Amino acid sequence: MDKFEEMLQKMQKMTDIDRKQMINKAKGMCICGKCPTYNDCMKGKTEFLFCITGKSSCTTTKKACICPTCPLTPMIGLKFAYYCVNGSERELRKLK
Ligand code: SF4
Ligand code: SF4
Questions:
Q1: Is the Cβ atom of 48 under 6 angstroms away from ligand 2?
Q2: What is the spatial distance between Cα 18 and Cα 41, in angstroms, rounded to a whole number?
Q3: Long-range residue pairs from 91-95, CB within 8 A, at least 24 positions apart, any chain
Q4: Ligand 2 atom closest to Cα of 62?
Q5: Alpha helices in 1-96 (DSSP H)
Q6: pLDDT tens across 21-40, in order?
Q7: Looking at the CA of 27, which ligand is closest?
Q8: In the chain, where the domains are located
Q9: Residue 30: helix, strand or coil by DSSP?
Q10: Which of 15, 55, 91, 93 is the most exposed place for a label (fewest CB within 10 A)?
């Protein structure tokens, strides 16, 4: 089990309140707002943390993805990019 799977397991054992707090903390670390792909629609809907929450509900054109430079990437062992278009790390790994 790698870092990301350990994090998922930890989250599953958390109370709803603790999980929400953890997600809010992670949202504060998300650097999507500085990314060329991040658009006005996402901004208007305050969408962030696509690596955890999954695809954006906005129509999105891939320009670049700065996820690999995000502090969360090494912290939780993310391996992919373009989560706003392709879906969450969990979905991309095909984990339940
Ligand atoms: S890895 Fe990408 S989607 Fe996830 S928090 Fe960082 S910038 Fe946002
Ligand atoms: S998930 Fe990647 S491509 Fe999408 S807005 Fe965030 S940094 Fe940019």
A1: no
A2: 29
A3: 91/54, 93/4, 95/5, 95/8
A4: 3
A5: 3-13, 16-29, 40-44, 50-53, 72-76, 83-86, 89-92
A6: 999 999 999 999 999 999 99
A7: 1
A8: 34-96
A9: coil
A10: 15
